[in-house]
Amino acid sequence: MVVCVHNEERYLEGCLKSIFNQIFKPHRVLVILDRCTDRSEEIARRFPVEIFRKKEAKWRNSYAENLQLGFDLLKSDRCDYFAIVDADVILPPNYFNYLVFFMERNKVACASGRVVDKPRSKVNRLFAAWKKLNLKFTPLGRRPRGCCLVIKKNVLREIGGFVDVPAPDTYVQNEALKRGYNVELVVNPTTVVQHVRDEPLRKILRKQFQTGMARCELGTSFLRTLLHGIFRLRPLTILGHIYAYYKKDKVEFALWVLALILFTWFLWWYIFKYIPLALKEGAT
Hints:
Structural class: alpha/beta
Strand content: 15-25%
Order of helices and strands: EHEHEHEEHEEHEHHEEHHHH
Number of helices: 11
CATH topology of the largest domain: Spore Coat Polysaccharide Biosynthesis Protein SpsA, Chain A
Number of domains: 2
CATH superfamily of the largest domain: Spore Coat Polysaccharide Biosynthesis Protein SpsA, Chain A
Radius of gyration: 21 Å
Shape: globular
């Protein structure tokens, strides 16, 4: 199991407690300290973990590099599974026990439980409520979550490990699917993971933009990203996809941004102007 850490003193203790409270105990837990300047190492040393200190980033995507470092250190281990646990999540006690049982029974290569946000700030609670409502009405295309992902190690070896991309967990799932393996988001009360991080609004919006860039770099079609951005009301993913595709041509990127702004304005103008009139006429 790998826990990637970059200045996570606020959340790390709760995460590690939930790992060592598992019914199905992890064989080895590797904490990768990615250029930490806070008390993360001091907190990690309170638990029976192995610690790897990364002093500098050699890859463009540091998180992907951390996962590959962890895989290199653990791939010769006798355990059949490789788990990724982010430092800002809390796992239920039966998490690994149920997931491993599910994966063995259903021949699944990658799986995770459902993740629910448990924020404290008003902004984060608002976004969490919006996400929950949004997923309720647009549930299609949901994949296992990278923050608590379990992967069969033989499949990860076959893929060749992680590569230098913005969303390395999504890359692994895509590669597993190409090879005919199944990936599953396991919806069960015993596998609900809590995501406890509070993030400022600018970081939430930046993540949307970076998600769009990652989708482009991983080969997701623009049409799928466009539909994702419209139906899930995440317009910055569309912008991120366009930017990643046209980042060498600033003029064309600016024209796409202008077109997106005009399209969004027209869409909302149409909704607020004509939909109420149609409903009113239908009622009469």
